[in-house]
Design goal:
The complex is a heterotrimer of chains A (269), B (294) and C (454). Chain B has one domain: MetI-like (MetI-like fold, Orthogonal Bundle), CATH 1.10.3720. Chain B has 13 helices and two strands. Chain B has helices spanning 5-40, 56-63, 65-96, 104-116, 119-129, 135-142, 156-183, 188-196, 201-212, 214-229, 233-239, 250-260, 265-290; strands at 43-44, 51-52. The chains are: A mainly alpha (269), B mainly alpha (294), C alpha/beta (454). Chains A and C meet through helix 2, helix 4, helix 6, helix 7 and helix 10 of A and helix 1, helix 2, helix 3, strand 2 and helix 5 of C.
Chain lengths: 269, 294, 454
């Protein structure tokens, strides 16, 4: 196989995967411009109803408020979550000992219990603490996740111990090493973590819905659920709402994806 | 190393400061309610009227044909979907790490998109694609792969396969992102060197990429195992567990038992701990195989 | 550039250290003051607790769904009530039914009933489940001053437990059959040919129509037993024995309903759709000639304005060879509940007494506005009901639906309706694939018994 054939095969595979992946997004865009009946009839060409769908959507749901609520909660959750979990992941690896390794395994178990089982005790606890209908109650259960901790733990594993030692000799504090060296070096991991944490926060649904019993606190996923709850579903407006909900995560990824580009090994060298 | 042990121990003690917020949160947000749920799992009764009944709920599980079916379904999904998805993600990630290719940014974004796509939209699309008069049947009959349209979602095996296809479609890009991030921690010069040594792409993949990504692969494997055994969205939205519970997942069944019919919170808690048990065993095996410091 | 963006985001992460400290100390201390601190850090935009009734004595919190139907209707009721009580206000929290089940389950399961709203809307099929399992969540409205005798008796029975009225009836789901008159005409039939007939005649016509046009007459959603239940109810059948256990095996009406279902399926007179969206698409995009369902389906029938004037409405066929068979049934419908957490039961009762249980004006507004068919008997006399509807070629459909509604046989849904529905859905799925009806009914009965803990 020549070098050119290899490249060609890679292109074919990647382009094929890209097309399959992007199809539903394109379909959503098309659907957002069509009448409800055409959407479910499977029409695959752009229509002229975007404006009407938008009008129907904003008449039905306060999308602007939902968007702002979603942004607020997601940013809050993402930022705090990444901070807490990266610190922990780093700590688990750099300062590892038998107890911490064992604790990591125990912590891992916390994600294996279906949330359905935890909802009622959590609700009882939160109402006891007076955290119902609060932003804290909203984000608290999803702030610390074993997944993120493990992700940062494995990133820390490829963070050279020599660098840490050198920094210590230079007089950098332990937190200084984390913030000034680990974060910049591991920005590909941070970018990945940021994207998926934001996405999970953005799409978070069941718990927020249970704990936020206030019409002013509704997020975009709740509004999408509202749109499908009636006797009649306007699929054109629904797809527009779904599109609006999907785009922020996509844009965030697009903005951050350069951090996955080859060769940024940064300070590791 | 040895003369530093005293200092290291001191540092390792300090390390708890790094862990504290995350560990406290997990203990309070997961373990405290889990203990609560564990106690509930020994109670029976409908609604709020619960009383202790020993192991009744756990014994009941073995007689519950639907739950047993859901366990089988989840393992079917797990065995096929997780390996396919992870291998695919690895392949795509290593291709997208090739310096010679162009337009990688847009292709990366495209392949990542499915997991960001709203469930509402993608389930409508997948259901219509695989409907009796859907796109897949149209193409298959045109190409004479099928002699007549086949209602994929109305038959047990094909419904399960549709769920697997949907899962692979949705989560491959998600896992790829972590591999891409992990690959950045491998110096590109290693690849260059391998090439000069005459290694084939396949050899490079198995000898360099896979071993160096091992920690990341372990995480994604544990996560996907957990995610598949707790699968909920696809079962609810694509097939609604049907036809006649043949594609229902454990979490879907638990949810139905907790919130759709007459609530049986003791029983649903017991089933939840069965899931915990199953995932924990698999994760333990994966950790034993993959989580070693070299 | 790329470095800059990420470093900005990471800087934000660090800036949030303060926040994080606050968040984690909350969880650690479990103190009530923590929430206040975090609220202010969140720009003070956090919820004022809607269900604490704190916004004044004349505000009631309502959980309901569908801005075009239920929310619209109760908003209209609010307007009417506000004429006499200007400071009355409803705080409506839009909550889809599925989510409400989750919310109710969580609240009731945690025993923290103070988190319930003042009023909520409940699907009729789930009413008995909640009434029996969580009797504490309801306020008994029997002596509230609401005149329940002004509602249809069958509808009131859905929300009555042990002689106590636990809800205010809202909309009905009277069964209707809607057909495309233009397509019927192509096949040589009219709406009259499909009126007051039995399923044998329906299948005969259906086969002919299918042969001539290729279309099925109507469709159902696969994996659902709703249609089976509609058939059973239309003949006044039952699915429960007197002792509350499932009555499936040897239940003649149920067996006849399942046989009819299978024949409709086998002959292709009935199409099946895998899910709700494609079910709606079958009749809006002309893949079937019509639909048979609760009258709320009309909202979806009317989705395509290009089909205006092409539709006609009539009653459903009745079971053949069953003496108690009728052409009338019901699917869906809902009832308002005043919860036990209601801060002002007197106000809530008065509100309902003067609106949903006492205002012609309300029903005259929400019928044309939302297509909400009243269960309040005096409303049926209103002239609004006899208005011709253009979409249905000038047919006065609401008068007809009200007339059908009065003839619907009663139906005991029972506490375990959802379990029975799921089990029978599996029966329906399996028999069209060739399984034996009696064996399947036995299996379904075992499943429901198992779910009931027997």
């Amino acid at each position: 196989m020549t070098e050119k054939t290899k490249i060609a095969i890679q292109y074919i595979v990647l382009i094929f995967a890209s097309l399959i992946s992007v199809f539903p997004l394109v379909w959503m865009m098309i659907a957002a411009t069509n009448r409800s009946v055409d959407v479910i009839a499977g029409k695959l060409t752009f229509g002229s109803r975007l404006f009407e769908n938008y009008q129907n959507l904003i008449a039905n749901q306060d999308i602007y408020r939902g968007f702002m609520n979603s942004v607020k909660y997601s940013v809050l959750q993402t930022v705090i979550s990444i901070l807490i979990c990266s610190l922990a992941g780093y700590g688990f690896e750099v300062y590892h000992d038998k107890i911490k390794d064992g604790l990591m395994a125990v912590i891992l178990m916390s994600m294996m219990i279906p949330f359905v089982a935890l909802m009622i005790p959590l609700f009882r606890m939160f109402s006891g603490m007076g955290l119902l209908n609060s932003a804290v109650g909203f984000i608290l259960p999803s702030l610390s996740t074993p997944f993120l901790i493990m992700l940062f733990r494995s990133a820390a594993r490829s963070f050279p111990i020599d660098m840490i030692e050198a920094a210590r000799i230079d007089g950098l504090s332990e937190f200084g090493i984390f913030f000034r060296m680990f974060i910049p070096t591991m920005r590909s991991t941070f970018a990945a973590a940021l994207t998926v944490t934001f996405m999970n926060a953005w799409n978070n649904y069941i718990w927020p819905k249970v704990i936020m019993q206030d019409s002013k606190a509704q997020t975009l996923p709740m509004m999408i659920s509202n749109l499908t709850s009636g006797y009649f579903t306007d699929y054109g407006a629904l797809m527009l709402a779904v599109l609006i909900t999907t785009l922020p995560t996509a844009i965030l990824f697009l903005a951050l994806q350069k951090n996955f580009a080859e060769g940024i090994t940064g300070a590791v060298k | 190393m040895k003369q530093k042990i005293g200092l290291n121990q001191k540092r390792n003690l300090f390390g708890w400061v790094f862990l504290a917020p995350a560990v406290i949160l997990i203990v309070v947000m997961s373990f405290v309610p889990a203990i609560n749920a564990f106690i509930t799992s020994f109670k029976t009764g409908n609604g709020a009227d619960l009383h202790f009944a020993g192991l009744t709920n756990y014994l009941r599980i073995f007689k519950d044909a639907v739950f047993i079916q859901s366990v089988k379904n989840c393992f079917f999904y797990l065995i096929i979907q997780v390996p396919v998805m992870l291998v695919l993600a690895l392949i795509l990630a290593s291709m997208l790490n090739n310096r010679k290719l162009r337009f990688k940014g847009i292709m990366r974004t495209c392949i990542f998109l499915p997991c960001a796509t709203s469930l509402v939209a993608y389930s409508i699309i997948f259901r219509s694609l695989f409907a009796a008069d859907g796109f897949v049947n149209l193409v298959a009959t045109k190409l004479h792969i099928l002699s007549e349209p086949y209602n994929f979602l109305a038959h047990p095996t094909s419904a399960k396969i549709v769920i697997i296809i949907a899962l692979v479609w949705r989560w491959t890009g998600y896992n790829m992102v972590f591999y891409l991030a992990g690959l950045q921690n491998i110096e590109y010069s290693v690849y260059e060197a391998a090439k000069i040594d005459g290694a084939s792409p396949l050899q490079t993949f198995f000898k360099i990429t896979v071993p160096l990504l091992k920690p990341t692969i372990l995480i994604t494997a544990i996560m996907s195992t957990n995610g598949t055994l707790q699968l909920f969205d696809e079962s609810v939205n694509l097939t609604n567990g049907g036809p006649s519970n043949q594609s229902i997942t454990m979490s879907h069944y638990i949810y139905n038992q907790a919130f759709q019919g007459v609530p049986k919170f003791g029983y649903t808690s017991a089933m939840s701990f069965v899931i915990l048990f199953l995932v924990a065993i698999l994760a333990l095996v994966q950790m034993k195989v993959g989580d070693k410091r070299d | 550039m790329k470095k800059k963006l990420l470093s900005i985001i990471l800087a934000a992460t660090m800036a949030a250290t303060v926040l994080a400290g606050c968040g984690s100390s909350d969880s650690g201390n479990a103190s009530g003051s923590g929430s206040a601190a975090a609220d202010s850090s969140n720009g003070g935009a956090t919820a004022d607790t809607s269900n604490a009734g704190g916004s004044g004595d004349n505000t009631l919190t309502v959980w309901t769904w569908d801005p075009n139907f239920n929310i619209y209707s109760i908003r209209e009721a609010e307007k009417i009530y506000q004429k006499e009580n200007p400071d009355f206000k409803l705080e409506i929290v839009e909550t889809p039914w599925e989510d409400m089940q989750t919310n109710l389950g969580t609240i009731l399961g945690s025993g923290n009933l103070s988190q319930l709203p003042d009023i909520l809307l409940m699907q009729d099929f789930a009413f008995q489940k909640y009434a029996i399992t969580y009797p504490d969540m309801f306020t008994d409205l029997t002596a509230s001053g609401i005149d329940f005798s002004t509602f249809g008796a069958g509808k009131v029975a859905e929300s009555t437990v042990n002689g106590k009225n636990l809800g205010v009836p809202f909309d009905a789901g009277t069964e209707v059959a809607c057909y495309r008159k233009d397509l019927l005409k192509d096949a040589g039939y009219t709406i009259d040919d499909l009126t007051d007939i039995d399923w044998d005649r329906f299948i005969e016509i259906g086969k002919d129509v299918k042969a001539k046009t290729g279309y099925s007459l109507f469709s159902t959603q696969a994996g659902s037993a709703d249609f089976i239940m509609q058939l059973v109810q239309s003949a006044g059948g039952e699915i429960w024995k007197a002792d509350g256990t499932p009555n499936f095996v040897g239940n003649d009406i149920l067996i006849k309903s399942l046989e009819t279902y299978k024949e409709l399926f086998d002959t292709g007179v009935m199409a099946t759709a895998n899910d709700w969206d494609s079910y709606i698409a079958t009749f809006t995009s002309g893949k079937t000639l019509g639909t048979i369902n609760g009258c709320w389906i009309i909202a979806s029938v009317q989705a395509d304005e290009n089909q205006s004037g092409l539709w006609g409405l009539t009653n459903m066929p009745k079971l053949t060879g069953v003496s108690s068979a009728t052409n009338y049934s019901n699917q869906g419908g809902s009832t308002w509940v005043v919860t036990s957490n209601c801060k002002n039961v007197e106000l809530a009762s008065d509100f309902f007494a003067k609106t949903f249980a006492g205002s012609n004006e309300l029903y005259d507004t929400i019928l044309p506005g939302a297509g909400a068919i009243s269960c309040w008997t005096p409303a049926a006399g209103s002239s609004v009901y006899s208005e011709p509807i253009a979409f249905f070629d000038g047919q006065a459909i609401y008068a007809e639906i009200a007339d059908f509604g009065a003839k619907v046989p009663g139906f005991e849904r029972g506490v375990y309706f959802t379990e029975a529905n799921t089990a029978l859905a599996n029966v329906a799925t399996n028999i069209v694939n060739g399984a034996d009806i009696d064996a399947e009914l036995k299996a379904a009965e075992d499943t429901v018994n198992f779910d009931m803990g027997n």
